[in-house]
């Protein structure tokens, strides 16, 4: 794991694209602060720019770099939700506009995977995450379902988790409104 973490960090630091197992499905990622890397990820995935991406952070402390104050309802949901939970925040900060949705919001998940938490914490900032498939195709349930041509285009492919064939559901997605009202987008 130590060598893999070093390779992941080197990839992210140089603005490369990453194929990695998240706490849900396999994802494509990059440094959330590197606009060129984000644009490259959109091209790699063949995803329209108007379809926003999500971010993964290691913990609530890192979340505070992008959302402050963290709404109390969001903190409670993150603490008690058993499944991975992606929350859409209306007024993020410290992020390039290329990552934001048309309405200025951003979707962020405090990752539950120790593997991801470890390298994201070491990286020190958010990592982009989007499903490891071409836009419009079905998300892969495990590494073996990822399109080989997509794998070939990524700068670094994690070895960790490639043999795991356990199917995992995507995260729950919820939007927290200005009065902390909840809108479940994907239960």
UniProtKB/TrEMBL annotation:
Protein name: L-threonylcarbamoyladenylate synthase
Reactions this protein catalyses: L-threonine + hydrogencarbonate + ATP = L-threonylcarbamoyladenylate + diphosphate + H2O
UniProt keyword Iron, yes or no: no
Pfam family for this entry, one: Sua5_yciO_yrdC
Similarity comment: Belongs to the SUA5 family.
Source organism superkingdom: Bacteria
Keyword tRNA processing: yes
PANTHER family attached to this UniProt entry: SUA5 (PTHR17490), THREONYLCARBAMOYL-AMP SYNTHASE (PTHR17490:SF16)
Species of origin: Saprospira grandis (strain Lewin)
Enzyme class: transferase
Domain (YrdC-like): residue spans on this chain: 2-187
NCBIfam families linked: L-threonylcarbamoyladenylate synthase
Entry EC no(s): 2.7.7.87
Main location class: cytoplasm
Keywords tagged on the record: ATP-binding, Cytoplasm, Nucleotide-binding, Nucleotidyltransferase, Transferase, tRNA processing
Gene Ontology molecular function, alphabetical: ATP binding; double-stranded RNA binding; L-threonylcarbamoyladenylate synthase; tRNA binding
Lineage: Bacteria, Pseudomonadati, Bacteroidota, Saprospiria, Saprospirales
GO biological process terms on file: regulation of translational fidelity; tRNA processing
CC per GO annotation: cytoplasm
Locations listed in the record: Cytoplasm
């Amino acid at each position: 794991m130590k060598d893999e973490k070093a390779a992941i960090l080197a990839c992210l630091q140089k603005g490369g694209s990453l194929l990695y197992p998240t706490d849900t499905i396999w994802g494509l990622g990059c440094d959330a602060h590197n606009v060129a890397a984000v644009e490259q990820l959109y091209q790699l995935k063949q995803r329209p720019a108007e379809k926003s991406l999500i971010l993964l952070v290691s913990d609530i402390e890192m979340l505070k770099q992008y959302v402050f104050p963290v709404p109390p309802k969001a903190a409670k949901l993150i603490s008690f939700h058993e499944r991975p939970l992606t929350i859409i925040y209306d007024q993020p900060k410290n992020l390039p506009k290329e990552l934001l949705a048309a309405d200025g919001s951003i979707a962020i998940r405090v990752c539950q995977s120790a593997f991801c938490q470890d390298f994201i914490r070491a990286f020190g900032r958010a990592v982009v995450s989007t499903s490891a498939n071409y836009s419009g195709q079905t998300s892969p349930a495990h590494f073996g379902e990822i399109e080989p041509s997509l794998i070939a285009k990524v700068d670094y492919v994690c070895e960790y988790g490639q043999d795991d064939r356990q199917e995992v559901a995507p995260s729950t997605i919820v939007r927290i409104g200005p009065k902390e009202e909840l809108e479940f987008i994907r239960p």
